[in-house]
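Quick note —
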Amino acid sequence: MHEATESPDTVVPPTGPVPRDGPGPSAVAITLPPLVDQHSHGTVDGELGVGSFETHLAAAAGSGAAPAGTTFFDSWTGLAVRRWCPPLLGMEPHCAPVSYLARRRELGAYRAARLLLRGAGIGTFLLESGARDGLSTPDELAATAGGTVLEVVRLEPLAEQVADTSGTVDAFIGNTAEALYAAAQHATAFAMGIAFGDEIPPDPREVRRAAARWLALSVRPARDRAPDPALAQHLLWSAVATGLPVQLHCADPQSLIGFLRATAGFGTDLVLLPDRPHHRRAAQLAAAFPHVYADAGPRPGETLGEAPFGKLLFSTGARALPELYVTASRLFGQAMARLAEEWVGEGICTRAEAQRIGGLIAAGTARRVYRLDAAGSGSG
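Predicted structure written out below.
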């Protein structure tokens, strides 16, 4: 666990009524606790020019570079950045992108990141670690964000690191088991990108053959890709055996049904982190299996209609730009405010119930699934 350090910067309190745009305040204001961001990657250090900033915006939108004459500030993510981030840096909302980036440079990358992250309303970050991507470490993110940062160990880079120091198949198999055990002593969860999940663990002989093929890749860039299916399944089942929660990054979770069914009763919680537009299907699977949970997604109004509220969790999925933590948390707050107003107005629930539901998705369920209070990270 990585705790925040003291900072002289002004910190925007993470608690309070959720933000809502419109002509006036909502009659059904709800207050969210400090958010638990169950999935993010950290931030990039150093100053960013217009081109590099837009490159990260494009990556967040799952797109390539903007065509000539266009800009990714003219996108949903870009508009959200211009709405919510300038006030945290002492500027008016919707200021020109060039003015915003000039203010960012004036403050300096580190101080700007502190102000943004500490104004995002996130109290606990679950940071996916292990990739060689040059982004902030858990200690660095904790110092910058002023919150608690917990590690989610990604299995693929863990296996790569083991392969680098294992000259034989026997050494690789044994060292992988030891690395998983060691990681489980400090990690909050494991994570893996997976296209499908077998209903039984792979045959050990096939795992050995897959390991031999992988170790034979003597050129490092060749090994920097996902392990083949047998080795991937071995890593996945080995992580499940540790008892820690396992995050499953999947394009479409439908292909994981057999694996989800097979792991029921193991005592290990699985959290689905699907690609768009599959959040609704992930929520349906969370409703079907007691040990399965799902990311609430960018439109929680859709997923809340598919699963019990205690099966859904908030995340930013942010990478590189501290602005992405801000926009994800603000848009989540807006979505929950709209739902509360709609549901209370139509008599579906009381204001107190809307408050409780918002708190579950914002933090409560994550605190339970990832055992955060047992880990001594405070109360939410």
